[in-house]
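Dear colleague,

Thank you for sharing your sequence with our group. We've completed the structure prediction you requested, and as agreed, I am returning the results in plain text so they can be pasted directly into your records. Please verify that the sequence below matches your submission; if there's any discrepancy, let me know and we will rerun it promptly.
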Amino acid sequence: MTPEPLLAARGRSDLKAEAAFRSWVRQLVKGAAERRAFDAGQIDAVMNPGTGSAILLPEAQAALQGSSRLVLSTLDALPGEVCVLDGAGTVVITNRAWRASVIARCGAGLGVCVGANFLAACRDATANEGVYAEAVVAGLRRVLAGGRGLFRCAYVCLTPGGRCTFTLTIAGINQDGTVHAVVTREDVSESERKRAGVPRGSGRTRANRIAALARSAAPNLLLAALPENEYERLLAVLEPVTLRYGEVLHEPGEQLRHVYFPGDCLVSLLTVVEGHRALEVGLVGREGMVGSRLALGGTTASERALVQATGTAVRIKSACFLRELRRSAALQRAVWRFTDALMIQVTRTAACNRFHMVEERLARWLLMTRERLPSANFYLTQEFLADMLGVRRVGVTAAASALQGRKLIRYRRGTVTILDQQGLEAASCSCYRHVQLVIESAAA
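Please find the predicted structure tokens below.
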């Protein structure tokens, strides 16, 4: 925006005040060359030697205000719901879609306004939303602390229009040492209903929805191995869910509220050190369950359970799981055999991280991921891989480049494609085959 229309829009008193301000600022300019540049309008700011601060000239102030208005207008034009938080979690900007949602849903689903604190809203969430709010708090704090660039999780709440499911995505922004977080919220309630095959107002039972999931292409193998009558009984207490990449199912020390049986999704188990550093020690897919510690008498989580690949699963409340475990010898055998296989995987992974090269470990990890997913293509960022393998990103880059150079994988824009599985097995360490044999034996 040029100064001419701005000046034309101002009154006589405004122009006088601006002229006086400019004259005062000009006195701070030292040197003939600098004054000529000032008079020619080539300087936007002048340093005040008395205070050490920069003074913006009126044209620069107007341009800065114009840039702020452009940012706000751009956010308002976006169809998705967006808000921006400062380093303390306070909402500083919301877009039009977010504000409209806050009004329509009466603030449900963490619908907070400018000036409110997002972390406080999570702490004040209702009991039904508690497990989701805790996950959001943990993820947001890691983003604001700089320990994680992106966090994504599901959030389920009750609104005036009924039960709603959102996908919350939190991205960190670090500008000159100042950290902000951008929160986007997507209402996925309708797609959830379509995935489950349940239209609005349908009277179909939960058991029917689970039966539909059981007939899908990727059932949970632990449940599928149960006798038919026992599996049918479990259907009444199982709930179908969609687990999304980046979602945290539980953190160390948290109560185990649910047991999850993955279908075509994938969950990483990570040991957390010093509150934020994490290393993967286990991987669970359709062969097993998340929350097996309940079967051993534990009630709290000992690790972070992080969804690595989006997909479907079924879950059961902890109390129901323990009740069914007590009454079913077949379920006990299946759970204990899987838990034994998982413990072997954990110990083998610890040894692998200590003794094997990064390239071998990456090959092993990609193969284990492929075994549990329906596709040879999956989304993985270098940051995520570095956390999984416990190495720096430069190590992941070098290892992935080596495997790609041998035409074993293709890695482009976060998407990994396995091109030669046999070649990748040859490049992997012996831990891959050892763990797979244990898992296959447990499932037999």
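Summary note from our side: The chain has 18 helices and 17 strands.

Kind regards,
the structure core
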